[in-house]
Amino acid sequence: MKFTAVGDFLIQEVYKTPYDGFDTLRDFILRGDARFFNLETTLNKEGSCCASPFSGGSYLRVDPSALDTVKSYGCNMITTANNHAFDFSYDGFLSTLACLEQSGLAFAGVGRDLPSAAKPAYLQTKSGTAALIAVTASLHPTAIAGNPSKVYAGRPGVNGLRQSEVIEVTAAQMEMLRDIAAETGVNHEADIDRKDGYLPELPAGVFEFAGLTLETAERPGRRVEVNKTDYARIMASIDEAKEKADYVLISLHDHSLDGEKENVPAFLEKFCRDCIDRGAHAVIGHGPHLVRGIEIYKGRPIFHSLGDFVLQLNSTPSAPAEYYEKNGVPVDAGMKELLWTRSKGGKRGLMYDRRMFETFIPYWEMEDGKLTRLELLPVELGFDAEEARRGIPQPAKDLSFIDRLARISAVYGTKMHIENGKVIIDL
What we know:
By secondary structure, this protein is α/β, with parallel strands linked by helices.
């Protein structure tokens, strides 16, 4: 079976296709039987939905007609399970969900309750059946979908993989923090809630300081633990999918960091490998807005991040009051001033980092569950183009960023070479 995938499709303004270079991208994507993308926005009419008190960073929305632009590239499997799913609260989420339901695309990772959000989506192709399970590990706690009960309907939301962070401190540091907590009263409210049964008791050896979970260790450090309930649910979805489909794809959205943006946190590496061990045939990562390394694990690909495929943050036509207030800009100032202030005059943010404009489209073939071919089409989003064309993909002319991709993939033992303008992964 054949596959292609693109990264974050962060479209904020409808644009026309085809354009110069479009046919090359579309034709390459169409080589896959299953063709995946992550839609990094909400679909709703301007002014039709109130904003959430929180957002995924920016408040993202686009007119539902943009889905026609998205579909013109040829992708047939989609998710909107990402940190922007609730930028415009439940109305914006349900508007997006309704658009997906009417699109004819196979979609996963979002639903009207948790069982439907966790359920695999299936795509019948001439070469077999592909299943898609979509997960976001970057999410506001309230965005996760809820289970129904005998009385209440489930809650709309995303299929989330929540995590908790444990800070490891020495015995001497722990004693000092306990003294500080006692003297400042920083834990008094939580202590009372635990006493009254509104918070669970802390395990032995664990101390909470102002919402941080602390454990004693030989040396200071930190670790991330995934939510066991979420993990079990995702693994159960893989079990279901591999019984019904020939190939199982995992979409994983996450921005977690481990030092540099290109580094993959250990808990994500483990989760990706666990998915393969459970029976998934590929993990398609996206979220940090730049490419991360490619890993071939037990003969199956893990794309730790595909980066951006479309990046139109500066094309956002409007924003709610919360976004202006967050950036200290008067609500009536207009988007140009808001975006200029947020970027400190074009000196920071995704739109001013060349790495966010460099990506690739993978094409891979699998037989009997094993990878037999993997090639990449380098793509650039017009970092140096005029504003109207910035953020829109076209085949890359400068392939120098592939050196960086090769370096960060070499950590996983992955080797590659360039051949006729494409990158071939050595298998």
